[in-house]
Specification:
Length: 424
């Protein structure tokens, strides 16, 4: 008699970073011709003559076969390996191990998310600057050092899981160009001028974070897993803008992941936390994945740490990459659903045609102000569209098709990313 059994498995919990975790259930249906108990993670073959199931001990590292017999994506140690990744040049590249050589082409395709310095309008906003200073993060947004793309990639490709194994010879070490670079949360904090005193990783509920970030407008974290930035108060909208560019790089700053939400919550509430541990954990993710859509965060910080230990490590022909554009704040962050809780920025923008101006006294003046605001929005969007169209035209004339280029640089959440990724 055929028996249909349903059972569910619970994962050990996917860590979202900074004290957040998320458990997921997965359901499976097994159809057996006998009453043999179901064994998870084992392939079974059922014979038509009602014989006992035969265990197939084929290693999971081999190619999976679909019903049509075609080869599916390759897997190694349970990790997905992207297909059709172009080969990367190996000229004058430093590898510490054979494993690093195999990972090079995947690391080569990853986007380097260079940190961006703040513009003067934010630097003059005392409330935001005080929060960054209290968190010890000023060095991540101002006076940022140079970025050497090739050096960063060679560092990332030589990051191994042994760096986190206490007692291993490579513990807290990354070997680059024949040099041993000491890399740990303590060293990161020292470089940033932060306190090296260990701090507890306090567990916070997403509901409490949501309430704080939205100034009480939203009480529950969205079921879709992402919080729209339109609900953020002005203070957290600005911190989210900074975080999406420098701390948890992503091209989707309009939605806030849970990992980034907690990070800006800790900064906004001046809660003590270990930023060095956060940077270290984000960097170690590159040792555990073959993904190409995982952006390389903190490249200028990594270069600074390497050069502080080995000033002569640069090659003679090596020059720093062009600096990223300054990080600006859209004036629309002061309008709409954003609760104004940053007085300094609102006062600074008075008289600049933003929505932070005093409300006109007459209906006609109010309509004129709305009309002007809409015209400014149209002008801004038109300019942005023109820039995007120009970029599209340039990419279509390049060596790589537009679709491949866009896919290679897409990103999901870093503060939250796993084998696919905080990212862009």
């Amino acid at each position: 008699m055929t028996v249909v059994r349903k059972y569910s498995t619970r994962s050990s919990g996917k860590k979202l970073g900074l004290g957040l975790s998320e458990n997921k259930k997965s359901k499976k249906v097994i159809i057996l011709d006998d009453d043999t108990p179901v064994v998870q993670n084992v392939k079974r073959k059922v014979h038509k003559d009602n014989a006992a199931p035969v265990v197939d001990e084929t290693p999971t590292e081999e190619l999976d076969k679909s019903d049509t017999g075609s080869a599916a994506r390759k897997r190694k140690i349970g990790k997905r390996i992207p297909e059709n990744v172009p080969a990367a040049p190996l000229d004058n590249i430093s590898f510490h191990s054979e494993e690093s050589v195999g990972k090079w082409k995947y690391v080569y395709q990853r986007r380097i998310a260079q940190e961006r310095e703040l513009t003067g309008e934010i630097l003059h906003c005392q409330e935001i600057m005080k929060l960054l200073e209290a968190a010890g993060l000023l060095k991540t947004v101002t006076k940022i050092g140079g970025c050497y793309d090739k050096l960063v990639r060679e560092f990332i490709v030589n990051v191994t899981t042994n760096c986190t194994v206490s007692g291993h010879p490579d513990f807290r070490k990354v070997f680059v160009r024949g040099k041993c670079v000491h890399f740990s949360p303590e060293i990161i904090n020292q470089y940033l001028g932060r306190s090296t005193v260990a701090t507890g990783n306090e567990e916070l509920s997403l509901s409490a974070i949501t309430k704080e970030l939205t100034a009480g407008q939203t009480m529950v974290w969205p079921a879709k897993g992402l919080l729209s930035s339109t609900y953020l108060s002005v203070k957290y909208a600005i911190l989210n803008r900074i975080g999406a560019a420098n701390w948890a790089p992503t091209t989707h700053s309009s939605d806030v992941s849970s990992g980034l939400a907690k990070l800006i919550y800790l900064v906004g509430t001046q809660t003590q936390f270990d930023f060095g541990e956060y940077v270290f954990a984000q960097t170690m993710k590159h040792a555990e994945t073959f993904a190409v859509r995982l952006p390389i965060g903190f490249p200028c910080l990594i270069c600074g740490i390497i050069l502080s230990q080995h000033p002569q490590i640069l090659r003679d022909d090596e020059v720093p990459s062009q600096k990223a554009s300054l990080l600006t704040i859209d004036s629309r962050l002061l309008a709409g659903a954003h609760v104004s809780d940053v007085a300094g920025l609102a006062e600074m923008t008075q008289g600049e045609g933003t929505s932070s101006q005093k409300t006109p006294e007459t209906p006609i003046a109010a309509l004129i102000a709305v009309s002007k605001m809409l015209q400014d929005t149209i002008t801004s969007c038109t300019l942005r569209k023109k820039n995007v169209d120009t970029l599209i035209l340039q990419l279509t004339k390049g060596k790589r098709p537009l679709e491949d280029n866009a896919a290679a640089h897409a990103q999901d959440d870093v503060g939250t990313s796993d084998d696919d990724t905080t990212s862009d």
